[in-house]
């Protein structure tokens, strides 16, 4: 079975489901059905969510499982939060220093995050 697409290949607008069918008895139901927000996620985003959940939200475990850095994990989480229609929480230098003190990130990762904080401040 093919995965459901969520965007029109002609005009790029969101698609909706018009017909549902039972593979066992053949019953068909027609109506306007909406797709969940998960349906609009990429395969990579869904795989990330699976790893995140299996790691019980432990970012260090997600880093190890996917071979990516802390800032990359945070970026992917923020991307997914955006799919759900929420704004990402902007980190402050204090947040970064707290994560560094708690050994949640390395010094190199802290530098990357502080640079991002600075860029966000400059954009405002």
Write up what this structure looks like.
There is one protein chain. This protein is mainly alpha-helical and 124 residues long. The protein has 2 domains: 1-36, no CATH class; 40-123, no CATH class. Helix content is 48%, strand content 9%. The protein contains 5 helices and 2 strands. It has helices at residues 43-54, 59-66, 70-83, 93-101, 107-123; strands at 17-21, 28-33. The chain has a two-stranded antiparallel sheet. β1 and β2 form a beta hairpin. α2 crosses α3 (70-83). The longest helix has 17 residues, at 107-123. The radius of gyration is 20 Å and the shape is elongated.
Blueprint of the fold:
Layout lengths: L16 E5 L6 E6 L9 H12 L4 H8 L3 H14 L9 H9 L5 H17 L1
List keywords for this structure.
2 domains; two-stranded antiparallel sheet; 124 residues; 5 helices; mainly alpha; 9% strand
- Which range does the strand content fall in? 5-15%
Largest β-sheet summary: 2 strands, antiparallel
List low-confidence stretches: none
Number of helices: 5
Strand order of the largest sheet: 1-2
Mean pLDDT: 84
The run of helices and strands is EEHHHHH
State Rg.
Answer: 20 Å
Helix content: 40-55%
Based on secondary structure, the structural category is mainly alpha
Distance between the termini: 47 Å
User: Tell me, what's the shape?
Assistant: elongated
Overall tally of structural domains: 2
Strand tally: 2
How do you describe this structure in short?
The chain is 48% helix and 9% strand.
